[in-house]
Amino acid sequence: MKKLIMSLAAILVATPAIAGDVDYSANSQAKSWNLFGEEKARFTGKVTDAICGLTGDCPDDCGGGDRQMVVIREDDDRMFLANKNGQPIFSGAAYDLAKYCGQMVEVDGLLVGDSDITPGLESKLLQIQLIRPIEDKDFAKTNNFTKVWAKKYPEAKGKGPWFRRDPAIKAQIEKTGYFGLGHEVDEKYLEENAE
């Protein structure tokens, strides 16, 4: 798994965000989020999951929302990690893209990243706000994460951010602490930083 992750990182780092002189911001309807290195981008490409794109292990449904999704741009075969949907919450784009698995789509969103701030990460990440199969006229918003999450975890219903109620996140915190370094580290931090 580490080799796969490192391979993905190497491909993404080696992939430039903009191909040639093509202006991918033309006709973009994406809303700015004022992020570092943000560029509007609208282009066509094929939706798949990263593992499929790198290894050929390709389930019919791209993992059904459980695998990291990518869009391979049609113009230049560049692979863009779709790390965010259109919701202003901490969620990815997997649930929104899984239903387009293997399809040619047009995406509209933001390419985000700044190599001055994140040295070594030369490729920008894709934050998709709108998507449509290329044969369709209308775009769909990419805002399905919280709907799918709520159906998947009905027992986690309640107030507050979804991630504070997520069973997988709560189980991981229970296992390794808030910092992922063990409960002893959490306790030491709290002792040293008590007001």
Q: Would you give an account of this structure?
A:
- The chain is an alpha+beta fold.
- The chain folds into 2 domains: 2-142, no CATH class; 153-192, no CATH class.
- 27% of the residues lie in helices and 22% in strands.
- The chain contains 6 helices and 6 strands; from the N terminus they run αβαββαβββααα.
- It has helices at 2-14, 50-55, 94-98, 145-152, 167-176, 183-192; strands at 39-49, 69-73, 79-84, 104-112, 125-133, 140-141.
- A 5-stranded mixed barrel has the order 1-2-3-5-4.
- The longest helix is centred in the N-terminal third of the chain and has 13 residues, at 2-14.
- The radius of gyration is 18 Å and the shape is globular.
- The chain starts with a helix and ends with a helix.
What keywords describe this structure?
globular, single chain, 27% helix, 2 domains, 195 residues, 22% strand, alpha+beta, 6 helices, five-stranded mixed β-barrel
Helices and strands in order:
Blueprint: H1 2-14, E1 39-49, H2 50-55, E2 69-73, E3 79-84, H3 94-98, E4 104-112, E5 125-133, E6 140-141, H4 145-152, H5 167-176, H6 183-192
Parallel strand pairs: 3-5
Antiparallel strand pairs: 1-2, 1-4, 2-3, 4-5, 5-6
At a glance:
Keywords: Signal. The chain is of the alpha+beta class and 195 residues long.
